[in-house]
Every structure is written in C-alpha cells, then in structure tokens.
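Readers of this paper often ask what the protein records in our data store actually look like. Nothing more is needed to write down the fold, since each code stands for a local backbone conformation. Below, we set out a record of this kind in full and without editing:
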Amino acid sequence: MKPLESRKQLLIAESELNRAQLIEDVSALREDVHALARRGKSIASIVVAAGALMTGLAAVRRHKSAADANPKPSWLQGALKGASLVSSLWHSFRSNGQDQKEKQREIF
C-alpha cells in the first residue's frame, strides 16, 4: 500500500504544478492578446485619420478642377469646405486621443 500512496501523492503534486503553470501561461497569453489588440486599435486609428486626410485632399483637388471651370469661385464656399476638412480631421485626431486615454485608464 505504501508505494501506491506515495505514487498518488506524487501525481497530485505534479498535477498542482501543471495547473499553476497553465494559469501562468494563460495569463501571459491574455496579456499578449491585449497588447496586440491595443496595437491594432492604434493602427486602425491612424488608418482612419489617413483616410480622412486623403478624402479631404481629394475634395480639395476636385474643388480646384471645378475652380478651373468657374474662373471666380466664392470665397465663402472655399472657407466652408476648409472648415469642414479641419473639423473632420480634428474629430479624427481627438477621438484617437480619447481612445488612448481610455486604454491607459484600463491598464491602471
């Protein structure tokens, strides 16, 4: 009986060690997944901002080609379009900053 009981105790101890190692591995994996998600969100924010900038530049180019057809465009229309572009860029960058602040709050 003695060897069987000692074998049982060894198996229980080994199981506890394996369980502790599994918990550490899952914790490390979870941290890696969170880090990857943060990187993905920051890259997505940059892509969105770049897309907004490209859209704005395309609108300016279209406006210039339309200006060639109309020799005297209204300065008010140009100012409104410029303000719209600045507003959309400001919103993109501001939302990116808000996302980063929320991420920092989650970390701490």
